[in-house]
Amino acid sequence: MEQNRKISCEANETELGVKVLAEASEGGEPRDAQSSNDNTEKYQLENEHQFCLDAGTKTEGCKGESRAPECDGPHSDEEAATTPHSDDEAHYDRGWAWVVCATAALMEFFVGGLITSSGVIYAALIEEFDKSRVETAWVSALAVSTYYGFFPLGTVLSERFGCWVVALLGCLACSIGLFISSFVTSLPLLYLTYSFLWGLGASLVYFANLLILTKYFKARLAFANGLIALDGAIGGSVLSPSMQQMLIYIGLANMFRVLAGAYLLLSVFSLVYRSKRRVLPHQNDVITTFVKKRRLFDWGILKNKAFLMWIVVVSIFMLGYMVPFVHLVRLAEDIGIDKTRASLLLTFVTVGSAFGRVIVGRLSDIQRFNRVYIVQLAFLVIGLSNFVVPVTESYPILAINAFIFGLFAGAYLILNPVIVCDILGPDKVSYGLGMSFLLLSVPRTLGPLIAGRIYDGLQSYAIAFYILGGTTCLSAFLATFVSILIRRKVDDKSEGCKNNEPSV
To answer: For residues 68 and 13, is the Cβ–Cβ distance under 8 A?
Structure first.
């Protein structure tokens, strides 16, 4: 019985190593043409070990059994120099990798920044087209839905054609969509030119950025991802007031043209992602075979009760999450706050989000902090912050409330992929995130539309913020069941690992 468990664990570890190797390669990496199959296997195990460390979790294959010394990589400079793949990994975490990281940060500045500045565009469209709030909210809501809903397309195209091609096409799509939008005189046409075309382009850029980092970073991957996320928050804090000033001085159409020009320039930077690395024939066969057999989704993860419960919880939370991003600026203008100060509320949100990601990211690495409990607290505070919005006309209170909302929203954003990894394990996390991005695009869209419909009926945002604040608090309560299911899974695995430990 014990022997069968060990064999199964070793098979799972090797399979995970092959998957991570396939996902971490784009157009191939330099390999010695004479490298042996043993060296390739060693490299796969090293990748798996590092992935476990980056994810902040440990898989079954990383513990509970005796591992060969090579699984932990070289332990000294001498060993590193004699490792067959040491030259091969020289590009990781240094040199050109940081140029790639800076490029991804620049792209995320405009992509993430424009997403979080949706409220400025929403308020401008209301004045420009004089349509109902719900009709106008469709523009931003559909853009966000497209942005997250095309995750599978971005990942597949990046694996097939390379991240630089996908980033280039994404930037061009954003530029074309914004440029055409500057000439549109009908709100429904913006659903196509801005919501779909810009949203699609932004989605391609975003996921190309995520994938390219895995090809240049190993030990510093978490840090690089943090920089990208932080830069997206900074982009929102800069673009919101900047766009408001452009609206005042040059108008909506010219603002779209300026942004179109910025994305056109960004397309040139996508060439930084081009890779000249060679491919080992053995490894290329592994990658080709894996990609041909790979599915967009692993439907088996839907049998995981903790994952299903997490999707339900976050779906309820997402109904209220996008509402402040879309409606807060206009709500402030409705109560007499000038446009410049109203747009700055989104700056407070994004600055708070940046702090939340950094602080909670550090706390989540401390084992005694339960990540789901942190998210529960975040959901509860966000729900309460929604209750505050309609009962005050004080700008300082709105600004403080916006910062608190952003602080705890950032906590959720940084912990979501980690919790998915805790639930499914590193070998399934890409499938889990892909499916969650797709499914959550629906409530992300519905929330702003519900708020707009309620305003059109009652001429007030109060009921909308109360209802969506209540759903957010409900999601905090339901997250308790996620924690229970995860704990049961961990207890079961711990018992299994104890049975697999070699006797002394």
So the answer is: no
DSSP assignment of 286-327 equals: HHHHHHHH--S--GGGGG-HHHHHHHHHHHHHHHHHSHHHHH
What is the C-alpha to C-alpha distance for residues 241 and 346, in angstroms, rounded to an integer?
Answer: 9
d(CA 269, CA 177): 19
Q: Concatenated DSSP letters for 122-156?
A: HHHHHHHH---HHHHHHHHHHHHHHHHHTHHHHHH
The predicted model scores a pTM of 0.70
Q: What is the pLDDT of residues 441-493, one digit of tens each?
A: 889 889 999 999 999 999 999 999 999 899 999 999 999 999 888 887 655 55
Nearest to 354 by CA among 500, 238, 456, 484: 238
Closest among 234, 252, 242, 463 to 358, alpha carbons compared: 234
CB 190 within 8 A of CB 218: no
Nearest to 324, CA basis, from 194, 469, 440: 469
The CA distances from residue 86 to 48, 97, 201, 379, in Å, are 16, 16, 37, 45
Report helix angle 118-129 to 133-149, nearest 10.
Answer: 140
Degrees, nearest 5: CA angle 439-465-374:
60
Tens digit of pLDDT for each residue in 261-298? 999 999 999 999 886 544 334 333 333 333 444 556 67
pLDDT, position 504: 32
Buried b (16+ CB within 10 A) or exposed e, 348-386: bbbbbbbbbbbebbeebeeeeeebbebbbebbbbbbbbb
**Total Cβ atoms within 10 A of residue 266:** 23
Residue type, 363: L
pLDDT given for residue 357 in this prediction: 84
CA distances from 321 to 193, 237, 238, 355, 465 (A): 25, 18, 21, 18, 11
pLDDT surpasses 50 at 25: no
Confidence band (pLDDT; 50, 70, 90) for 369?
A: confident
Q: How far is CA 223 from the centre of its chain?
A: 14
Residue 193 is predicted with a pLDDT of 95
